[in-house]
Write a structure and sequence with these properties.
single chain; alpha+beta; four-stranded antiparallel β-sheet; four-stranded mixed β-sheet
Length: 430
């Protein structure tokens, strides 16, 4: 048994039926037929007045075009001295028509600590507690328990060193590990830890705090380190201008520089404003060369650096470095600058990458340029075209059509929940 719109073969897609306005009295009617093994279902028709449909399409096209117009990296404006306020506002308006322009965001209030810093402080406290327990186990002659305590804290100590550069904590942990291993009859492993401690700090540790046989092994290992050659190591960073700490002691000057070091593995810390601190254990050889590439600072790092600068807890960086840091903190990816050296000179426009401070593009804007010329220059600086589209962009129509067709089909399927769909051809279903 079958009706005009349904019948056997549920779920077979045969097409759709579009009735002209002469038959329906409406602009367009799409007829969708359904069939199910349980019962026959007549077609479901939905009317779309063309006037309303065209209005919705136009609104959708405008939305897409406005969204596309604001695409591109976010920027922050830098208006230098000598720039006329009206010219600066005009350039900003042109940039804002092509990109999203952001302003400087305020820093978090004092006392706000990042979760990463809290985690590092907790790990540091855990290492100190493990060190205290190991010393207690040593005093109780529980050598194996002493070794387990310090061995479990070693990985946390390395994490703390990589973030804070607190080398003294790692040195004490190496010394305690060496004493525990010596008393546990593991002298070869103890010597390795004693040598690591001597490389971190060559000053002789206090005597009489541990058993005599353990301190003798420690002295022998330290003498091995002192017998190694010592000389200058050249350290280069990208970008330059970074401070260098070797085993917690800061070298004079900024990179590129030469620092005095003994042959062996040392913890080298590189610090620079606007970049993440880098601490790694590196093999330093006299007259050798070390190259380090720094990563741009995360927002939590920028927040801490800017807070320290503003409260005189860190040296004041150059003005351009400070501005780039504020721009990166405010989530600006690029900086558009406008400046003029003197009243008779032309304007200089620049586009700079915020994360690295790299100059991407620089152009000259004539001080007598009209609005059209200024717009063209600013668009060239941004790497875009100023020509406005004559109509709705081509990619809007396929998207709008896909949305409408998908909405019609989805609505029909929802109306007939749990049933198979069947689209009838213009001649009707058989």
């Amino acid at each position: 048994m079958a009706s005009r719109y349904g019948g056997e073969g549920a779920g077979v897609k045969e097409g759709w039926r579009v009735l002209p306005s002469a038959e329906t009295g409406y602009g367009t009617q799409i007829v969708v037929a359904f069939s199910t093994p349980r019962r026959l279902t007549p077609a479901v028709g939905h009317r779309f007045p063309l006037r309303k449909l065209s209005g919705r399409l136009a609104a959708l096209a405008v939305t897409f075009s406005l969204t596309a117009q604001g695409a591109g990296p976010t920027v922050m404006m830098s208006v230098g001295q000598g720039t006329e306020p009206a010219r600066g506002r005009a350039v900003r308006d042109v940039v804002a028509s092509r990109r999203q322009v952001v302003d400087v965001l305020p820093l978090p209030p004092p006392g706000v600590v990042s979760t990463d810093l809290i985690a590092i402080e907790q790990r540091g406290q855990a290492v100190r507690l493990a060190l205290a327990r190991a010393r207690k186990k040593e005093s109780e002659a529980l050598w194996d328990d002493c070794v387990r305590e310090v061995a479990g804290a070693m990985s946390d100590a390395l994490e703390v060193i990589a973030t804070t550069g607190e080398v003294a904590l790692l040195r004490d942990l190496h010394l305690q590990t060496g004493f525990c291993l010596t008393l546990a009859d593991q002298t070869s492993g103890a010597r390795s830890h004693f040598r690591s401690a001597a490389l971190l700090d060559e000053t002789p540790p206090p005597s009489g705090l541990h058993r005599e046989e353990a301190e003798r092994v420690q002295v022998d290992a330290r003498n091995e380190i002192l017998a190694r050659p010592r000389g200058k190591v050249r350290i280069l960073t990208e970008p330059p201008g970074a401070r260098v700490l070797i085993d917690g002691r800061e070298a004079a000057g900024v990179t590129p520089l030469e620092a005095d070091a003994r042959l062996g593995d040392h913890f080298v810390t590189i610090r620079r404003f606007r970049y993440e601190s880098n601490t790694e254990q590196r093999l330093l050889q006299p007259f050798g060369l070390v190259r380090v590439n720094l990563e741009p600072a995360r927002r939590s790092t920028l927040s801490a650096q800017l807070f320290a600068v503003r409260h005189a807890q860190a040296p004041m960086p150059p003005a351009d470095e400070l501005f780039w840091a504020e721009a990166a903190w405010s989530r600006a990816e690029q900086v558009v600058g406008i400046s003029r050296p003197d009243a008779n000179a032309n304007y200089r426009l620049s586009l700079t990458e915020t994360a690295t401070g790299k100059l991407l593009r620089a152009l000259t804007l004539s001080r007598s340029a009209n609005d059209a010329g200024m717009r063209r220059t600013v668009c060239d600086l941004l790497g875009e075209t100023c020509e406005a589209p004559a109509s709705v962009p081509w990619y809007v129509w396929p998207l709008a059509g896909a949305v409408i067709v998908g909405g019609v089909v989805t609505t029909a399927v929802v109306l007939e929940n749990n049933r198979d769909t069947r689209f009838c051809p213009p001649s009707g279903c058989r």
